[in-house]
């Protein structure tokens, strides 16, 4: 055995792995991008056709949010597909690179590269729809997601995308096939169970029978007679909850990394 | 090179496949791993290369745990599964993006092997037939020049001329630095190739012996000689009766792997095991 470089991360080895992943998956990624572009165009175009005018800036912003979150989680849940299918998995697991490098390639593609590719594609579809569908007397206006006024909303979307990316990556390595379906089912089931448990525990603590459903990290709302009461954290403490998606994403990234190290055939 | 000590493994806790299994594989040998269907040949190979993790015991490659899949270990290891995966790349693209992972990869050797195995060039690998994909991967595996080469049923899917070429290439690729492990149920395909036989049966390694030593200790008799009493195992072949008996004369006889395998996996193999497990000097008396 020759003396080798760092066993966790070596940039030349990582670059080689990244290049191999790109060469092997680029045709499929380009096809996915083309299908995504077509879908965005069709959905926004259909709305434009129905309302006989181009979508408003606000509607475009909502479309951006829905497409980036939906596309992000679906794409993330496929990036570890090579570890699920047995024939491909033995090649992927035994390729001379570290588990971290293999995980990092998947993460890079599933989040930063996805965002870099998605944003211009969205603008292409959006601009095409806005300029082609502009109604009589309407001034075409394309949403600016980089505007200072949109920073808070876009920040929130990216925060949530990060969480969904963690969920998608975890599902991609945990399940061997039908990754997205199984991940979505597992998440919905978990959310249902957690919300029910959280609600029941809060009901026991607060002692109010007519309490509203309280998912985790939300305030308790109940009524007494004609009056509604809300028990929540003070605003300054509530702000800390904004970090919860990022924290959960970090935990899910860690879980998906360790799942790669533990993957067996 | 490979050291397995007291390995316990199974896919279900209730049904262990291996218990307390130990095995050593060294450089400079071509090992033939034989076993019945479901005996665990592929599972053992997966434990060796780090695709399956032992429940207990250790499985080391050059003193490193195989399950850790460290890059420095993987650089010196190539595993070719029975069902190969060929990506949508041409041979040249595949080499350009994969060869760099293997420090001793030799492109000239690869193209020589591809020519010998009659694998076409230019087309994408996923458009090849199953046999051609397998031949390409065999050629790549050999050209990677890794210290440990593990092949699971490599001759499955190969046509007869390719099997001949495969044996020729594999024999030429063996060096003192390499350890090759070939699992197969097609014993005849590898008869003239392997120098050490490893047989897995009933959750354990029942034989790990060099062919030459087997030839020294056993006589593989045919015809009338096979009908004489005192054989460990008898059977019938197209050549008539066949038998395995102790080599009492010291004369060389060619090891019949199929007969040997049948003898080791038959219900009354206990006296044969006992004989093979004696020190070799005790057997020649």
From TrEMBL, chain A:
<feature type="transmembrane region" description="Helical">
    <location>
        <begin position="180"/>
        <end position="197"/>
    </location>
</feature>
<feature type="transmembrane region" description="Helical">
    <location>
        <begin position="154"/>
        <end position="173"/>
    </location>
</feature>
<protein>
    <recommendedName>
        <fullName>ABC transporter permease</fullName>
    </recommendedName>
</protein>
<feature type="transmembrane region" description="Helical">
    <location>
        <begin position="26"/>
        <end position="50"/>
    </location>
</feature>
<feature type="transmembrane region" description="Helical">
    <location>
        <begin position="104"/>
        <end position="134"/>
    </location>
</feature>
<keyword id="KW-1133">Transmembrane helix</keyword>
<keyword id="KW-0472">Membrane</keyword>
<keyword id="KW-0812">Transmembrane</keyword>
<feature type="transmembrane region" description="Helical">
    <location>
        <begin position="62"/>
        <end position="83"/>
    </location>
</feature>
<feature type="transmembrane region" description="Helical">
    <location>
        <begin position="240"/>
        <end position="260"/>
    </location>
</feature>
TrEMBL record, chain B:
<protein>
    <submittedName>
        <fullName>ABC transporter ATP-binding protein</fullName>
    </submittedName>
</protein>
<dbReference type="InterPro" id="IPR003593">
    <property type="entry name" value="AAA+_ATPase"/>
</dbReference>
<dbReference type="GO" id="GO:0005524">
    <property type="term" value="F:ATP binding"/>
</dbReference>
<keyword id="KW-0813">Transport</keyword>
<keyword id="KW-0067">ATP-binding</keyword>
<dbReference type="InterPro" id="IPR051782">
    <property type="entry name" value="ABC_Transporter_VariousFunc"/>
</dbReference>
<feature type="domain" description="ABC transporter">
    <location>
        <begin position="2"/>
        <end position="227"/>
    </location>
</feature>
<dbReference type="InterPro" id="IPR003439">
    <property type="entry name" value="ABC_transporter-like_ATP-bd"/>
</dbReference>
<dbReference type="InterPro" id="IPR027417">
    <property type="entry name" value="P-loop_NTPase"/>
</dbReference>
<dbReference type="Pfam" id="PF00005">
    <property type="entry name" value="ABC_tran"/>
</dbReference>
<keyword id="KW-0547">Nucleotide-binding</keyword>
């Amino acid at each position: 055995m020759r003396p080798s470089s760092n066993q966790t991360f070596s940039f030349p080895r990582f670059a080689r792995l990244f290049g191999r992943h790109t060469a092997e998956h680029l045709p499929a990624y380009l096809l996915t991008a083309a299908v995504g572009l077509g879908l965005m165009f069709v959905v926004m175009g259909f709305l434009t056709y129905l309302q006989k005018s181009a979508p408003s800036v606000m509607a475009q912003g909502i479309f951006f949010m829905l497409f980036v979150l939906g596309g992000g989680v679906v794409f993330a849940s496929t990036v570890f597909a090579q570890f699920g299918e047995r024939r491909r998995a033995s090649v992927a697991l035994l390729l001379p690179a570290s588990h971290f490098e293999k995980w990092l390639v998947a993460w890079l593609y599933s989040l930063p590269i996805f965002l870099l590719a998605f944003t211009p594609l969205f603008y292409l579809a959006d601009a095409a729809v806005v300029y082609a569908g502009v109604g009589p007397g309407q001034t075409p206006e394309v949403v600016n997601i980089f505007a200072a006024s949109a920073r808070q909303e876009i920040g929130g979307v990216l925060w949530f995308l990060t969480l969904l990316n963690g969920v998608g990556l975890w599902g991609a390595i945990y399940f061997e096939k039908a990754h997205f379906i199984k991940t979505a089912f597992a998440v919905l089931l978990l959310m249902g169970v957690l919300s029910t448990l959280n609600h029941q525990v809060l009901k026991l603590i607060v002692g109010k029978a007519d309490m509203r459903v309280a998912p985790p990290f939300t305030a308790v709302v109940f009524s007494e007679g004609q009056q509604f009461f809300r028990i929540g954290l003070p605003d300054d403490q509530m702000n800390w909850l904004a970090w919860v998606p990022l924290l959960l994403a970090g935990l899910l990234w860690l879980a998906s990394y360790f799942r790669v190290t533990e993957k067996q055939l | 090179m490979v050291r397995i000590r007291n390995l316990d493994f199974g896919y279900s806790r209730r049904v262990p496949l291996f218990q307390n299994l130990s095995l050593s594989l060294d450089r400079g040998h071509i090992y033939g791993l034989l076993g019945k269907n479901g005996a665990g040949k592929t599972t053992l190979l997966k434990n060796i290369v780090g695709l399956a993790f032992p429940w207990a015991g250790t499985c080391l490659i050059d003193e490193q745990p195989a399950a850790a899949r460290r890059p420095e270990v993987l650089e010196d290891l190539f595993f070719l599964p029975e069902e190969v995966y060929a990506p949508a790349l041409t041979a040249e693209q595949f080499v350009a993006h994969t060869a760099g992972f293997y420090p001793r990869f030799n492109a000239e050797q690869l193209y020589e092997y591809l020519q010998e195995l009659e694998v076409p060039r230019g087309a994408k690998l996923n458009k090849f037939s199953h046999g051609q994909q397998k031949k390409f991967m065999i050629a790549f595996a050999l050209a990677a020049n890794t210290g440990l080469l593990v092949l699971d049923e490599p001759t499955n899917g190969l046509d007869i001329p390719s099997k001949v070429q495969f044996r020729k290439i594999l024999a030429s690729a063996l060096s003192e630095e390499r350890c090759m492990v070939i699992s197969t149920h097609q014993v005849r395909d590898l008869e003239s190739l392997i120098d050490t036989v490893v047989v897995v049966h009933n959750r354990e390694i029942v034989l790990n012996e060099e062919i030459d030593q087997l030839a020294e200790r056993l006589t593989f008799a045919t015809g009338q000689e096979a009908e004489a009493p005192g054989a460990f195992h008898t059977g019938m072949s197209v050549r008539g009766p066949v038998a395995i008996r102790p080599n009492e004369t010291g004369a060389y006889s060619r090891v019949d792997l199929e007969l040997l395998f049948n003898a080791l996996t038959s219900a009354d193999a206990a006296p044969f095991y006992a004989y093979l497990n004696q020190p070799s000097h005790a057997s020649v008396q």
